[in-house]
Amino acid sequence: MSFDPAETAAPNPAQSEAFLREHARATRRYFLQLSGMGAAATLLSQPLRAAPPSPASSDKAALQRALDELEPYLTPQDEFQDVSRGKPKPHSLSDEKKAEVGLTRETWSLEVVSDTDQPARIKRPLRKADNTALTFQQLLEMGKTKAVRFPKVMTCLNIGCPLGMGVWEGVPLREVLWLTEPVENLRRVFYYGYHNDDPEQMFRSSLPVGRVLEDPFDLPPVILCYKLNGEWLSAERGGPVRMVVPEAYGFKSIKWLSHVVLTNLPHANDTYAEKNNDVDSPLKTFCATIYTPDKVKSGESIPLTGWAQSGIAGLSKVQVWIQPRGEAWAEDDPYFLRAPWRDADILPAEPHLGATEPLGPTVGLQDNGQAEQWPLRLTKAHWATLHPGLPAGQYVLRCRTVDGKGVGQPLPRPFRKSGHAAIEQHRLVVE
Q1: Which residue(s) pair with 228 in the sheet?
Q2: CB within 8 Å of 155: residues ≥ 6 apart
Q3: How far apart are alpha carbons 174 and 171 in whole angstroms?
Q4: Cα–Cα distance, 367 to 305 (Å, whole number)
Q5: How far apart are CA 249 and CA 243, in angstroms?
Q6: Which has the closest alpha carbon to 204: 196, 212, 193, 213?
Q7: How many angstroms separate the CA atoms of 377 and 379, rounded?
Q8: Which of 104, 144, 300, 328 is most exposed, with minimal Cβ within 10 Å?
């Protein structure tokens, strides 16, 4: 069963260090820009207020230390968070067992068949029984002319942090679907992966066939993914092949893919639907902190860093608000829309998203590796700010995003079943 992203080869410490060095370049550039401006006033969302004093060198040094500790933009495969399911988890099987059940590149194959209960009419099902199932080598051959590469953050519907950020590569699912020569009664596609030959463990997701055949709203295509950040997809990340749905939460991107079923079923039949989740909700725009001090001295600037997910509506701002603890707030403003939020800075993109080697043609990147716009939709970004100093007291720190349509987090979809987007808050003591 599956949730999270995909990976490749064994951990490579040298590569991880290279990622960190590349990311540090962006953070140093941000710090130098901040120093050159001479004031934190550029970080404020309320220009009519008097500018606060320039941050002291010690304050800027504290921010730089926080920036230096940010994770790399692209997550090395071995550093993705893992929320895989299975008893045992398929990636933990022995090499011999993986080969036996088709979880190696040499033995993997994919069946694409019609649903027996709600059949779609297709002329050429792809089945193991008659040696027509798609092999890994056949998929790679298709990839020579059809492969697509795009950046995407992998996030669990019910967890308030990204599992990892990567550039995913594979063949659009529609290219394989057309091999079956569908004729009629095809309304939906559902799919599942290897689940230890135990029907009780099966984890299934589904999509309307229209989303498979077309890419609405300038979305990348749904792909049969076999590479992450230029490396073969590892077993822990769902390899040899997994589904990746660009705009969706991780439960749609099934790992250890083995079956695609074409059906006349008119509705979703995802395993997650049975768990009382909203299975058709795309990625939300929201943010959280990475570094927040628990205590600071009175009057000293407060260094803050964090990450933000740019969902289906994009990302225009990250903002912070520090409120005295116990201060009453209007009952008719439960999402703090009228709060005195202050803008933080979204850190800039590095060429090729900080990859150690050029990625090649990638959705959202120009030929020189620069992002066409920033932040990229359906990805994450880092943010930072030096908040002006405060009087002694106890406070609550909050952060939020404003999406590309000007809507503040947790709106427009504040409901937990459609994805985590609650406004994060931390206690802060000023002494």
Answers
A1: 168, 231
A2: 161, 162, 163, 249, 250, 283, 309, 419
A3: 8
A4: 30
A5: 12
A6: 193
A7: 5
A8: 328
Instruction: Specify burial of residue 391 (Cβ count, 10 A radius: 0-12, 13-18, 19+).
Output: exposed
Q: What's the 3-state SS for 246-290? A: CCCCHHHCCCCEEEEEEECCCCCCCHHHHCCCCCCCCCCCEEEEE
SS3 of the chain: helix, strand, coil, percent, to 5: 25, 30, 50
Q: Which residue ranges make up each domain of the chain?
A: 29-70+284-430, 77-274
Q: Which amino acid is at 9?
A: A
In the chain, count H helices and then E strands.
7, 21
Query: What's the CA gap between 75 and 344, in Å, rounded?
Result: 23
pLDDT digits (tens, 9 = 90+) for 18-33: 334 444 444 555 544 5
Rg over CA atoms, the chain: 23
Q: How far apart are CA 12 and CA 176, in angstroms?
A: 33
pTM over 0.85? The answer is: yes
With beta carbons less than 8 A apart as the criterion, state whether 320 and 401 touch: no
Distance of CA 304 to the CA centre of its chain: 22
Distance from chain centroid for Cα 36: 33
pLDDT at residue 386 greater than cutoff 50: yes
**Rounded CA gap, 304 and 292, in Å?**
5
Separation of CA 242 from chain center = 15
Summarised one tens digit per residue, pLDDT across range 218-257 is 999 999 999 999 999 999 999 999 999 999 999 999 999 9
What are the residues facing 383 on neighbouring strands? 306, 346
Where would I find the H helices in 83-208?
95-101, 136-146, 173-177
Q: What architecture is domain 29-70+284-430?
A: Sandwich (2.60)
- As assigned by CATH, the class of the 77-274 domain is alpha beta
With both helix axes pointing from N to C terminus, report the angle between 13-37 and 57-68 in degrees, rounded to the nearest 10.
150
